[in-house]
Specification:
two-stranded antiparallel ribbon, single chain, 22% strand, 27% helix, alpha+beta
Length: 256
């Protein structure tokens, strides 16, 4: 696929103020781990669902986040890796315009999901309450967690506020609940909680503040589009996702 870039864009990508390096030996507690990877496969996440890490040479502050993300998706080494590992395609790097939603990382505790029991989607035992299956925008709604997370016409949708839905922890759990095309979903919430926690720990960097509280130092971009320069996904789906997470301390960029 990198050859296609050269054929369509002889001038190559524009000069960048950022230099990126792929870290192929990065290890994760979720993707590829013996305890979580079998669950991801069970839930229908095939080889297209990847987690990978890059290092950026430059220090980047909050004001440089937009420029960093655009440079990332224009970089020759980054594109070579992502074209190999995913179905994302960039045809014209100089035309890439990164459009993304910056997510919140204020929620750092799994107690956030106590709301699922409070609304009746999950029993005190952890059993996920089922319902008659219904298709909603091409997505099967087979239990009350799915209904609460995605069906905006349901009374259960208000279980999570709009701010809640901009939290990375919510998004991770949502993606794992809905899974991929051949999802063998769980009847009990425990494994979803386990995997959500490990993915969260893999993606974010936290530290203790002066007051002793846990604070997240990472910035999270939920990618929406690359503009005219390329395609994030081979086809549109409500279940598509792509996140780029910047750790300013380690100078790492993680993609999930």
């Amino acid at each position: 696929m990198p050859l296609l870039i050269e054929e369509m864009d002889e001038d190559g990508p524009p000069e960048s103020a950022f230099k990126f390096h792929f870290l192929p030996d990065a290890k994760y507690n979720s993707c590829g781990s013996p305890s979580v990877q079998p669950l991801l496969e069970k839930w229908g996440f095939g080889p297209d669902m990847v987690m990978c890490t890059f290092r950026v040479e430059q220090q980047v502050g909050p004001d440089g986040f937009q420029d960093l993300i655009e440079a990332f998706f224009r970089d020759k080494e980054v594109l070579s890796v992502l074209h190999h590992m995913t179905q994302m395609r960039v045809f014209s790097p100089q035309k890439v315009t990164a459009r993304f939603e910056k997510l919140s990382t204020k929620v750092v505790s799994m107690s956030f999901f106590n709301k699922l029991e409070e609304c009746g989607a999950v029993a005190p035992s952890g059993h996920i309450r089922g319902r008659l299956e219904e298709e909603w925008e091409g997505v099967p709604i087979v239990n009350l967690i799915r209904e609460a997370m995605i069906m905006d016409e349901s009374e259960l949708y208000d279980t999570f506020s709009e701010q809640d839905r901009r939290e990375l922890l919510f998004r991770i759990m949502q993606h794992l609940i809905f899974g991929g095309a051949s999802n063998q979903y769980e009847d009990h919430v425990e494994d979803y909680f386990k995997a959500t926690k490990e993915v969260y720990k893999d993606l974010l960097t936290v530290r203790r503040s002066d007051t002793g509280d846990v604070e997240v130092v990472s910035s999270v971009a939920s990618m929406r589009s690359l503009g005219e320069g390329g395609l994030l996904f081979p086809k549109d789906s409500l279940l598509n996702f792509c996140y780029v997470i910047h750790d300013p301390i380690m100078r790492h960029l993680k993609v999930w």
